[in-house]
Amino acid sequence: MYGAILAGxxxxxxxxxxxxTIQFKxxxxxxxxILGGCLEADHSIREYEAKVRMHKRLMxxxxxxxxYQEEYEQASPTPKK
Length: 81
Fold this sequence. Notes:
The protein is mostly helical. It contains three helices and no strands.
């Protein structure tokens, strides 16, 4: 989308861009689209990795908390009635 807008702006503003062959214009636009796709993929994978790290951290903390509770229950004397 942005590539088409930039191509239109380049066509109207730059005589150099107007003089390029259609093949080179397509190459430039495809390069911009591929770069955008790569950047978005990198952003998405970093978000996913952060979620996985947080989930693992929560599971590890939950396990530590459960062990602590078990030790506390075993160590505390049970009141007799």
